[in-house]
Amino acid sequence: MSGPSRPPAPPPALRWTTHVRAGAVFLVLAILLTGVAYPWVVTEVAQVIAPATANGSLLRCPNGTIVGSADIAQNLSAGKAGPGLFWARPSLTDYNTTLGAESPPGPSDPELLALLNETIAWMNAENATGNSSPNAVLPYWWVAPSASSVDPDLTPSAVLVQIPRVSANTNLSVAILMGLVNDHITEPPLPYLGVAFVNVLELDIALLALEGTC
Amino acid sequence: MGFDIRSLWDIFALVGIVVALAPWFGRYLGRVYMDRPLAGDSLLLPLESAIYRLLGTSPRQSMRAREYMLALLGVNLGLIAFLFLFLLWQAALPGDPTGAPGLRWDLALHSAVSFTTNTNFTHFTNESQLSFASLTTAWPVAFFVSPATGLAVAAAMVRGFVRRDGTLGNFYVDMVRSLTRVLLPLAVLFALILVLLGVPQTFTAFVTAHPITGGTQTIYLGTVASFQSASLLGSNGGGYYAANMASPFANPSAVSDLFGTFVMMLIPFSTPFAFSTIVRRKGEAWPYLATVLIVFAVAVGVFIAYQAAANPLVSGIAAIGSQSNGYPVGQEVRFGLSDASLFQVASVYCNVGANNMQIGALSPIGQLDLLFGMFTQATPGGVGTGFGMLLLFGVLAIFVGGLMVGRTPEYLGKKIGTSHVRWAALAILVHPAIILVPTAVAFLGGFVSLAGLSPGASAHAFTSVLYEFTSEAANNGSALSAGQVNDTTPFFNLAGAAVMFLGRYVPIWAMLMIAELFAKEEALPPGPGTLKTTTVTYTLYLTLFLVIITALIFLPVMALGPLAQIVGGH
Known about the structure:
The complex is a heterodimer. In chain A, the strands form two sheets. In chain A, strands 3-5-4 form a three-stranded antiparallel β-sheet. Chain A has a two-stranded antiparallel ribbon with strand order 1-2. Chain A is elongated and about 85 Å long. Chain A is mainly alpha-helical. Chain A has eight helices and five strands, in the order H-H-E-E-H-H-E-H-H-H-E-E-H. By secondary structure, chain B is mainly alpha-helical. Chain B has two domains: 276 residues, no CATH class; 182 residues. Chain B has 18 helices and four strands. The two termini of chain B are 24 Å apart. Classes of the chains: A mainly alpha, B mainly alpha. Chains A and B meet through helix 1, strand 2, helix 3, helix 4 and strand 3 of A and helix 2, helix 3, helix 5, helix 6 and helix 7 of B.
């Protein structure tokens, strides 16, 4: 044989009816396999291996009432109890989970300035730090709106700065509150893998348990 | 300053793990699309044969580009129709606990095209507008079929280099094997790991809580882990919650954040090795991986640097303490700066489009950085199609390089002619066309108004519209969503659907047509005039080629949006 071998002849195309059947059957199988079997199998296993978190890390008072989820922030500054509680980050959706999440204004947008100033004015009016000086410095993370609108966590410094107000509005001393906050700091599992933070809702439930009012 | 260089060790470790696994996983991925024995055959081969019998096809029936493309369009259009009707009539399914009404037709169409084209750009709020079945069942089907389509296209395209009969394989067989050998087993494994990391997974749609300060709070639960696992693995990027991976349920810790980053990067970073396995030339994968790593590393570095910098607008507020802990506006506390940034850059550069921060609140340079990843779509780009784009850049680079040094343009023994280049150019040039035309129409046609906005706000609004069409054209799905732009109108739904459709299927068509051209050619042995494609010089040349072509196409429009925010916005 001389020269390159002749390429094999291409096979004939499938009939269009074969394509319709193959496409339709494939889609039906995909829906059953990935839309039904997949979430079902994962849910069955999840309910066995991690039931507490798989069901939303719900927080309950000793009397069994569901107070919330450790993962979802609440408006903790509201109501009669508000002044005596640690507050979470501000929420652009007012902690209404039905609204999803809102994006804060862009970094060069004057509306961002207005939003931050409005939050600061409100915090000063509510005496959020308990430090009656009008020029109190507020931690940036406490003033800035989060990405999810329901970030339940705060940096430790933004929690510590609230202690004078919480102490003034409860029967708990600054020392007791310092201890409570320090017990609730979650350190990164390895150095620099994430940051240290405090889950504010869990902290408040522990605080109410101390007071016996949860 | 507050930024500590040591905090970067974990992101180096993660990228190191991905790069270490890539040759091994890529080799497995390549063998999935070859007739070679594979782990799991004893269990899965009988199952696959049974499925082929049901479909009425067999692996021996190999298709040419036109037939492969029509089969692909058939399945994808079928999926669009299924999702469209499902979303339109989601309220008709009995027993739905959410009570969400059906979507308006234009929104249902935008969403159906968005999920099917691997985009997952959303114009709705999941919590109030999607039924439980839409979130648990309908949407995840697209999370599998759409990346399976991408993997099938990549497999077909790569086969072009090793075939001589002009055929590219059997589309249905490639789809089935993508599901049984890659996407389903990995999605189950990764979903269970997410469950162990604290992500909810339950058939309870929501729980009503009674907060300590009074009132009630609806806590949305559901099949979050299975949803997010498939979403991230297949470069989909849809979020179970509107907050996507910023939601503390979907992404509860820095560890889950890093794990999610790994899930997104695994397939796109491994695909070069699937390619080198199929074409049986080990060294050919490295120039692609190196190109991707160079661009990706610069993108992550720039992003972190600008996230760590202080915002001059905020520096004027006396009451705010130090800005040295990063930029918290639109960020979550628990991830930390470096982990959050790596996730966000990986998500956009792998064309996933999930977000763990609010992109609209990023620094202009950060936004530009993300836009650049969507302009190239190839560093590394989405599952399958990202590598397809990278191969097209490679073909063009070899052609141009060959002309410059007077060598015969050929790749892996196959000659590159003008018809190849025409198809590659079509795939690359359709991208700016479907971004710039609708962006211009949106403003000139009065669908977005900048009247009464300050210069900073109008540059931000322009960036938001540009970002939206770029994200849709690249089938990315991340959104900037500036408050000044209402994109839930019929214009944005219908224009967006058209952009996503063209942005997905025109490049796929070009990839298959090029593959057929290669598949008809006889492979020639390398001669003295052959350009070596495994050298460091070639790698740097490919990187520069990709960056310069992208910059040339998009520089003017970048100047109008993000650059204007920097220069004139303050």
